[in-house]
Amino acid sequence: MTRGHTITIDKSGDHVRVVHGGQILAESDRPLVLRETGCPPRYYLPPEDVRLDLLTPSDTHTYCPFKGTASYWSLPDAADLVWAYPAPKPDVAEIKDHLCFYEVEVL
After folding, report:
1. DSSP 3-state of 67
2. Architecture category of domain 7-106 in CATH
3. pLDDT per residue over 43-57, tens digit each?
4. Which terminus of the chain is more exposed, N or C, with fewer CB under 10 A?
């Protein structure tokens, strides 16, 4: 990590749910919570806990110097709603293939 920039990843006992347009897109009791300098905490959910059948892969890719290249998925009315790192950098290998949403309810 760059001096002054940290990322921590922890298993969380939180129950999280993602709802969009009244439809549950994901629900998990085993999220990972990623805390990164200058960013809000983000929950990364195992793919088995996400309704992948409702999501369409996007052509969008972004690069983070700390995590690697992210791939995105969309809904018809919500572009790039969720992302994942299929080949994350070694320091954040735990988030491989876990999915992250912008809006998550912690229950």
Report:
1. coil
2. Beta Complex (2.170)
3. 999 999 999 999 999
4. C
